[in-house]
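Propose amino acids for all 362 sites.
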């Protein structure tokens, strides 16, 4: 259903090279019949490390990579290893609700800090006391799509050093930057900075595969491995083997290049159609990257109610923007996934959304 956030279509899937690696692996499944190291399967860790060095500027060793089942598990490991119950963790406001819910589930206290076009508002962050960590999306703020400036990143690093706080960098979607080279990750700025880097393959491979990783400082490798061992022993070695093969043979890089071409065209089609048909109602925010667009209403609306109505009556899936806010005065609008729909489908869906808005708001 358009504009579902996660709905991989045939063109977005990793294709023949992927099925070849999977088929080859399935011929000898006994190669992976024992328990794996809790930190992960070394060839996968090496492949991730090479990728991070080359594309994200991270100077890390394979041992620092901990394999996780999705970003969610990486964040869960941070919650148990780095923090204690009731610790205050600064989060961008707005942000991804599931990750905030997870922190609360683990007994942490998320403290919402507004974001500006330059990144998390450092002055507002400085006003908070006894913050033990901060969770940020510098390369593609979720949901607004802003890119933090290098200056803001430097200030955040300086703040973390002074406060003795951890920076958890959620680098989701960073490989999908259109027309430009990916920006270096914040975690790459300063060696020895108190950063935990979170990366994921769920968007570029497919969500059901649920493979991700984190990069931790050398002195915390053992404790993160221990926590992973206690949670679920290890992530699937077969899945790690498949991904390692896919990356090391260069297939991952060509898949990303192909996806970028497809998604950029789809993004342009959605932007064009929204500009043409919906400008009376709102506008788009955010950088030219990722898999979603953020549509902001010109005049505040009850986006939660509209989302429910549009799904039920018009078969359009829209995530309400205001639901991502904790304390800042919410902007209202829709988070629209465009990556998994053809240009024609997107034009058609925008027209449907126009119709829905006209019928509801006039
Ligand atoms: C803000 C944000 N971070 C990370 C992810 C990736 O999460 P996972 O690896 O658990 O799929 C997503 C996916 O939608 C996201 O929206």
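Proposal:
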């Amino acid at each position: 259903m358009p504009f579902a956030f996660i709905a991989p279509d045939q063109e977005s899937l990793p294709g023949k090279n992927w099925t070849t690696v999977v088929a080859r692996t399935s011929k000898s499944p006994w190669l992976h019949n024992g328990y794996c190291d809790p930190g992960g399967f070394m060839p996968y860790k090496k492949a991730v490390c090479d990728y991070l060095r080359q594309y994200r500027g991270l100077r890390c060793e394979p041992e620092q990579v901990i394999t996780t089942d999705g970003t969610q598990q990486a964040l869960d490991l941070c919650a148990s290893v780095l923090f204690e119950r009731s610790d205050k963790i600064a989060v961008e406001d707005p942000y991804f609700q599931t990750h905030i819910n997870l922190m609360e589930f683990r007994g942490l206290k998320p403290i919402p800090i507004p974001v500006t076009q330059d990144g998390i508002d450092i002055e507002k962050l400085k006003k908070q006391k006894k913050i033990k960590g901060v969770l940020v999306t510098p390369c593609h703020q979720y949901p607004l799509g802003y890119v933090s400036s290098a200056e803001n990143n430097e200030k955040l690093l300086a703040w973390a050093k002074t406060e003795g706080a951890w920076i958890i960098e959620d680098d989701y979607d960073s490989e999908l930057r259109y027309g430009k080279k990916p920006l270096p990750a914040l975690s790459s700025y300063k060696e020895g900075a108190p950063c935990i880097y979170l990366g994921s393959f769920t968007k570029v491979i497919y969500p059901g595969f649920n493979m991700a990783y984190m990069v931790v400082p050398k002195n915390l490798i053992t404790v993160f491995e221990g926590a992973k061992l206690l949670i679920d022993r290890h992530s699937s070695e077969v899945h790690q083997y498949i991904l390692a093969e896919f990356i090391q043979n260069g297939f991952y890089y060509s898949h990303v290049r192909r996806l970028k071409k497809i998604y950029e065209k789809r993004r342009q089609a959605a932007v064009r159609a929204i500009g043409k048909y919906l400008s009376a109602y709102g506008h788009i925010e955010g950088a030219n990257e990722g898999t979603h667009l953020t549509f902001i209403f010109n005049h505040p609306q009850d986006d939660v109610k509209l989302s429910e109505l549009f799904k039920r009556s018009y078969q359009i899936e829209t995530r309400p923007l205001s639901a991502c806010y904790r304390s800042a005065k919410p902007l209202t609008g829709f988070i629209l996934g465009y990556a998994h729909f053809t240009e024609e489908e997107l034009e058609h869906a925008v027209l449907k959304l126009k119709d829905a808005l006209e019928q509801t708001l006039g």
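The two ends are 24 Å apart (CA to CA). Residues 251-277 form the longest helix (27 residues).
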